Structures are given as structure tokens and as C-alpha cells.
Amino acid sequence: MHRIRYQIKTLSPILLSANTGDQNMTATSDYIPGSALLGIFAGKYIQVKNLGDIAHEDPDFYNSFLNSGIIFCNAYPCKKSKKYLPVPLSIQTEKNDETKATDLLYNDSEEQMKTIGGYCYITGDIIQRLTPSKSLNFHHARPDRIKGHSTEGLIFNYESIDPDQLFEGEIIGEKETLKELVGLVGDKFFIRLGRSRTAQYGQAEMELLSKQPEEIEIENELDKEFILTLRSPAIFYNKNGFPSTSLDDLKRYLEEALGIGVQIDTVKIFKKPVEIENFISVWRLKKPSETAFQAGSCFSVQVIGWNGSVESKLKDLQKNGIGERRGEGFGRIVLNWHEKDIYTVKSINEEKPEKPAGKMPELTVNIFKEVIKENRRKSIERKALQEYDQFTKHNPPTNSLLGRLEMMLMNAGDMEQFLGQMSDLRKTARENLERCKGEKVTLLKFIESGEPDFQHVFKQEPELTKMEQAIEYSPSADTEFCKELYRLYWLTFLRMMHKSRKKEGVNEQN
């Protein structure tokens, strides 16, 4: 197998969609996925060969782009000729000292530890850490794109990779196939990546660093015990053909790849699942999401039944990858990459510019405040959705009583007034609520507790905390906003109970 090394320089913000729980927020990956490069080269091939809509019928196109004949590896950040890879999940820093790291595959630690994240370059016992620079962009939402104008007050947030950053990756395949690919595109050319490419996003420059295909050489010596680390997400299917992050399915795959009589045992594992989802321009649709092992997942492996051919096959797996969709860069592995138990972590990110002097514009303050509030509202709704269901299993209240409680809540000025009205309910209504039991308390007692603990809602991710500090706004100190959250919680709670009752088709009795 041969390779061509390539480098991409971002010329404008790049938006490569990543899954996020916020419907008003489009996050971006902080690397350039191989699937994006596959689409670019496939499109160029179709254009030059004039294949049109029947490209899949061309044998060379099918083998190269649809059957993983060419592997387009992810492009990860690089700096000063060094390519940075996802940090292994087993290498974690002490909670109170981010410069000291331990590889938990080799050593346990009595300290509180946390994962590092980002990308790293390992030399000896030094980890140089790099995190690509990203920005948050605010746009007016356009729910009706036919009308072509935005709706006042609706904000949509884009996260994007900043311009003037370098990313490096590899294209792997047979020597002659790669030569033909280079002939199609040249050494240096302009590309467009990700979403909103017709607007201000997506402009980049790609340069092929290898003028000729280079033979891939795997130099590490292996024996029956080794460390397997994922350089990219890896997708495996179970026996029923569904994506799986089960350790058993990974073992089964490796055992089949290494040959008859070989068994795989894992001593320690550090893995996380990740959802993979990408857009297929030919379909004009997203490809169905698949669950994969996250890049950086690592495994301490023992091979039972080691023989002379196993080492050669393991080196082939490092060239070809493991799992499914390898042509898109999934399943890239490296063996025995990190072999120290203690590391010193150094960050090489450039210092961020200081906050500009002067007062923040009022419009910016209002936008930040609305983003913060909307995040809290979503959290409150999720809390209500998590808690209402426990009261639908044992003697739920009648629909008419639930509807009356909703009306009382909507007419009440605040929670105190609502609770006052609760105490004025007829005895039969209160008994109805008392008969309804959750996991630990009756519905009557639960409602009369008045103010569920919302403090966890105000303990959010660091980005929102920084945003609050920047505009000097504290949601927990905003009395009117807290009242809004309490009302939102109980309305969501009661309405979901009401809907649940209607779905069950229960006959009401007043």
C-alpha cells in the first residue's frame, strides 16, 4: 500500500456539522473528515471522466470511491510540520494540575483524573497538546426559506473552524491508482468544505505534499501483548448488521482478521461511543447516523494463539484500517503509540487576544442573554420530561383535574399564588392527587413542594459560564426569569401527563 500526504489550509470559517443536543445550535467538528475529501475527489473524477449520473457503473470509479479502493483519512491539525492526533482516552490529567498526566492503561491513580481532549503530538514523556481554534457565529433564523427573509427575534448559532489553520491527512491506495488521482487534480488547488458553501463559509486550499505515492512502512515490533489506539472513529456491525460499540463485536472482528485459532483478550479498555452522521450531496440527504467507537479509544490487548503470521496481519490492519466505511477514513488504528506511564502536558495553542476595552454593545449583550436563557429553558423542559412519567403508572389524576391545574397555573401570578389555589381545591380533587404515587412521594406532595431543585440547570458547560461572565448576567439571580422557569416546568409536566392520559384512552370520572 502507498500513500499521498496532503495539507489543507482554511481560508474562511469552515462548518462541518456535528451532532449537538441544541436545536438552535449547529456545532462543527474540529477536524476535516475523510468523507468530505472523498466527495471532493469523487466529484472531480466524475467531472473529468464525464461520467454524469452513471458514475457507479464505471468499474474504476466503483472500486476506488464506493468500495474503499482508495482510503481518504481524516485531516487533523498540524503545526510546524507536526501532525497532531486525537488524545488517547487512557491518558488523563490530574484534576488540579493539568500539566501532569498518567496513562491509566499502565498505572492506576489515586488522584481525581479527567480526560484531556483535543489533539496531541507525543515525544518521549512529553505530550504537546493542540486544540483547533473555533468561533461562534450568530445568524437570524429563517423558518420559511421560500419567503427568503428572517424572523425578528429568532437567532440561530453556527460554530465554525477559524480560518488560517492547517490540517494534514493521508490518501491511501495502490500506487498506480494514486498516480492517476494526482493527475486529475494537480499539486495545489482550491476546495470548498462543509455547509453554507455558497455564503461566507467553506473556502480552503488543498496541497498534495507527496509529489509521488510513498510506500507505507510500519516499523513497530509487536508481540502477543500490545496497545491498540483508534486514530479515527471506528464502526463495527454486530451479527444482525447493526452498528455496535460492544467489545465482543470488536473482538470478533479482530479474531476473524487475524486468522483461525487466534483469540483476543482485552485487559483494560477506555472507550466512548460517538454518533456518526454526514450529508451525501448526491442524495441531498443525510446518511443515517451510526454509533461508533470515538477516536482516542484505546485497548490493552492480548493475543492467545500468537503465531508467525499474526504480526504481519496486524501491520496490514494499521495500513488498511479496521471496521466499516474505511474508505471514508473510519477505523484508522495505531499500535503501541503511547508506551509511557507518566507524561508532562504542554499546550502550544497561541495565546488568545485580550478582551477589547470598553463596554460590550447592547445588541451583543441581548443576543448572549437570549442564548443563555434558551439553553436553560430547554434544560427545564428536559427535567420535566424526565420526572412526569413516574406519576402516570399508579392512579394518575383525571384529565379534567389535570386541565384544571394547567388553567390555575396559567392564571396564577407566581408559584405562591398557584400553591394557594392548590390548598383551596375540593377534598375529592386533593384525594385524587394523593392517590397518585411516584417513586418516593405522592403527586400532591410533589406539587406542594413548590420549587423543585433547579440549581443543576444553572451549572452548565464552560462556554455558557464564560458567556454569563462576559455579560455579567446570572440566571439564578434573575427573579422574573426564575418565575418563568418554574411556570415552564409545571406546564410541561402537567401537559405531558395530560397527553399520556389521552393516549391511554382512559375514561374520565370527575
How would you portray this structure in words?
The chain has about 500 residues and is α+β, with helices and mostly antiparallel strands. Among the domains are: about 1-30 and about 35-75 and about 155-215, Elongation Factor Tu (Ef-tu), domain 3 (Beta Barrel); about 360-505, no CATH class. Helices cover about 30% and strands about 25% of the residues. It is built from twelve helices and 29 strands. Strands 1, 4, 5, 6, 15, 16, 17 and 18 form an eight-stranded antiparallel beta sheet that branches. A seven-stranded mixed beta sheet has the order 7-11-12-29-9-8-10, with no helix packed on it. Strand 2 and strand 3 form a beta hairpin. Helix 6 (about 360-385) crosses helix 11 and helix 7 runs antiparallel to helix 12. The radius of gyration is 28 Å and the shape is globular. The protein starts with a strand and ends in a 6-residue tail after the last helix. Residues about 145-155 and about 505-510 have low confidence and may be disordered.
Largest sheet: 8 strands, antiparallel
Uncertain ranges: 145-153, 506-510
Level of helix content? 25-40%
Terminal-residue CA separation? 76 Å
Supply the number of helical segments.
12
Overall strand count: 29
From the alpha carbons, calculate the radius of gyration and give it in angstroms: 28 Å
